[in-house]
Amino acid sequence: MKLCINDILYAFSYALDCVENELIGIASHHSKRVAYICLILGENLGFNELQLNDLAVCAVLHDNALTEYIHEEGINGIDVVNDKDKINAGVHCVLGEDNLKNFPFNGDVSGAILYHHENSDGSGPFGKTWFETPIYAQLIHIADRIDAEFNLGFLTEEKYEKILKYLNENKNIEFYEDYVDMFIENLSYDVLLKMKDFEIEILLEEKIPRVCKEYSLEQIIIFSDFFANIIDYKSEFTMRHSVNIAKKAAIMAKYYSCDEETTTKLYFAGAVHDIGKLVIDKDILEKPDKLTENEYIYMQNHAYYTYEILRRIRGLEDIASWASMHHEKLNGSGYPFGKTADELGFKERLMACLDIYQALTETRPYKEGLKHDKAISILKNMAQNNFIDESIVNDIEIAFSGK
Ligand SMILES: [Fe+2]
Ligand SMILES: [Fe+2]
Ligand SMILES: [Fe+2]
Ligand SMILES: [Fe+2]
Questions:
Q1: Which residues of the chain have pLDDT under 70?
Q2: What DSSP string runs through 338-367?
Q3: Crossing angle (nearest 10°) for helices 217-234 and 66-73
Q4: Residues facing residue 4 across a β-bridge
Q5: Centroid of ligand 1 to alpha carbon of 113 (angstroms)
Q6: How confident is the model over 231-276, as pLDDT tens digits?
Q7: What pTM value is reported for the model?
Q8: If we measure between CA atoms, which residue out of 71, 68, 113, 109 comes closest to residue 90?
Q9: Nearest to 64 by CA among 24, 100, 14, 116
């Protein structure tokens, strides 16, 4: 399947920015600014197009393990980047590097995520000096620290003076001196000023070398699982929900004798159907009581955000539709678009049925999962009320009986 990694990256960075913003209070578009700075430094170092592309991917995904980290550690609202005394910043580096180990990069990027918090004097989480830290990691580190500390989305001359002072004071402490000099030389006040919130996307799009290539279906599964894990780790209430829907979508594809490409696309759609939840506050996702009317409307937005995020991936428009309409109902009472039966195709209907079946049968902290028969009887009831497709419910009944 032909895909442009750049599109996946933009889609992802949008979602990731929302997570960073909520969990550790970093200003939005942070990952894009980090990538942009890295590309300027990388160009200066003479990197070729494929290396620049890899660097951009690593830079955008440098904190990909934040939801997982917060989940594993059970710590909320802690400043992962800056509060080194309270927590071990290295944990999200280890998890983040591991998540990307099968990612189809152009070249070797090992250590890029693992060591993105190392200081040049060896005082970082793993005690590596600049000499022992891969260049990608050092570039991400300097870009990340400066943006996290100063929010380059909003720059003033006074702030710029503080940045220069900070960089110079940290020569060979936090950052290797050559990269400090290169930063100061290439990222002048005027260059940094261009990185305003709404302009950074355009700047980055122009800057990242476009790499579109054929990916094997196995590689698409790797992308899918990567996304699904980040989504699922956002809330322990729905742990494994996306991964399990992806698997069930693939089982149904087999049941319908779909070809391999359609099966993979259905898997992808299942994996990312709730990617919009990354934009929704964790407090609302995990609220134990009934949501108020306003909270419920806000929560419904996740399906729209799923559409907004996925529609950016050229070539996967059909997946954006299948995935984002999993809360639509045949009688038009669903969301986010209020589509009716004649507007909902087979794959959209399948996703809707699978989402409900999975939600009913999975165990969550506040409830035991229902048995297959009980879940099917609820689905049948919904089909009778013209919410979901009856024939798909019957197929699900057969495909998952005894599982
Ligand atoms: Fe980080
Ligand atoms: Fe960061
Ligand atoms: Fe959903
Ligand atoms: Fe869901």
A1: 22-27, 67-88, 236-238, 403
A2: ---GGG--HHHHHHHHHHHHHHHHS-BTTB
A3: 50
A4: 212
A5: 8
A6: 887 776 667 899 999 999 999 999 999 999 999 999 999 999 999 9
A7: 0.83
A8: 113
A9: 100
How far is the centre of ligand 2, averaged over its atoms, from the C-alpha of 81 (Å)?
7
How is residue 295 written in tokens? 């909270």
Identify residue 250 by its one-letter amino acid code.
A
Residue 312 DSSP symbol = T
**Which pLDDT does position 75 carry in this prediction?**
42
Closest among 4, 133, 145 to 62, alpha carbons compared: 145
The token pair at 357 is: 């079946």
Helices of type H across 211-259: 217-234, 241-255
User: 315 CA distance to ligand 2 centroid (A)?
Assistant: 29
Ligand nearest to the CA of 351: 4
**What residues have a C-beta under 5 A from ligand 3, the ion?**
274
d(CA 248, CA 270): 8
Ligand closest to CA 89:
1
pLDDT on residue 79: 46
370 DSSP assignment: P
14 CB-contact burial (10 Å; exposed 0-12 / middle 13-18 / buried 19+): buried
Task: Give residue 176's region: left, alpha or beta (phi > 0; psi -120 to 50).
Answer: beta
| List of domains in the chain | 2-212 (1.10.3210.10), 217-399 (1.10.3210.10)
In the numeric block, the tokens 């590309």 are attached to: 39
| Rounded CA separation 95/69 (Å) | 7
